[in-house]
Structure formats: structure tokens, C-alpha cells
Amino acid sequence: PSPLTELYQRADLWNAPSLAEFVRRAAKLPLKTQPGTEFNYSIGADLLGAVIEQVSGTDFESFLRRRIFTPLKLRDTGFDVPEAKRSRLAALSKQGTAGKLVTADPIIGAYAEPGRGFASGGAGLFSTAADYLRFAQMLCNGGELDGVRILKSDTVKRLVVNELAGFAKPTHQFSATHGWGLGVEVELDPATAAFGWAGA
Fold this sequence. Notes:
It contains six helices and seven strands. The chain is of the alpha+beta class.
């Protein structure tokens, strides 16, 4: 809890009707620190979706479908879930007051129904374990899967460099054993050489 957190909550970013409106709302908010000086979990990846739209000249969801989902044959991945597949959607749960799990509301604007929420660079995709495995295998293969190249191998190597290594304060790490690369969490123990990302 802080005055900055309250400002972000009042901006109601996750209920913006579009990525453009999300950016418009976020642009009015102050930064917590100067970029590059401190690590904070943030909306940076969400804003990158808007950058991709500007650079590619197409909406973010279409860009992902054309450049990643279709080439990797990710048939169950997208920002919406077709009505015919909604029975397969897992319910989101949280711990209730009595310590038992209860159904939770959608988080950070992630709605399965078309026309709700927006395509965000950091949140809101629905997928399956099988699709996610194909995506992760592409990264583990250095950027390609089944003969289809999604990323250059040098790009994948760059993703897993701990970007927090040069920060003066060790508290900038997400934890004592993990750092952050460009879009992935990085294991700091060289013996494991692993990377990943936690999600809901």
C-alpha cells in the first residue's frame, strides 16, 4: 500500500476497453523510479504490446497469431476462448475466509469472452499445457520448433541474461535465487541454467 499504488488502482488500467486506452491511462501515472535504476514488477510488458502494434502496423493479437501462434500450431492459445471450448476452461480459485478454495473473479482484465478486456503484452492469454509446452520447447530449442524458426538463437540467448546483475542493490532481484531476463525469470545458479515464468 502506497499513494502510488492508490493512483494506479484509481486509474483502473485493467478495465480499459482497449490497449490504446490502457496506454492513455498509464501515460498519466507517475513512475515509481527512473527507468534502469531499480527493479519493480510493473506494466512494462503490457506497454510493449502497444509498441509492437506501432512498429508492426497491426493489432497486437493479430501480430501474435501470425508470428507465433499459427507457426507454432498453438491451437488453443489466444486472448479469448471460443464458446465451444469454454467448458474446458479451468475455474480461477482463491483461498476463502474459512481456508477453503472459492471461485475468484477474473484477474487483470483476463476475460474469456470476446469483446471484454484487451490484448495485453503481459497478461490475459488463455492456453493449454500442450500449447505452452510447444512454446517452451521452442525457447529450449534456441528459437525453433519442428523446423519453424520463431526467434534467432542469439535472441533467445539474450533473453536469459540476468538484466539485474549490474544493479547496485541486491534487493533488486526478485528473490535470492532468481533474476530477470528480457521477458523471463532466470535461475541464478549456473548449474541449473533454467528460465521460466510463473502465472495464474
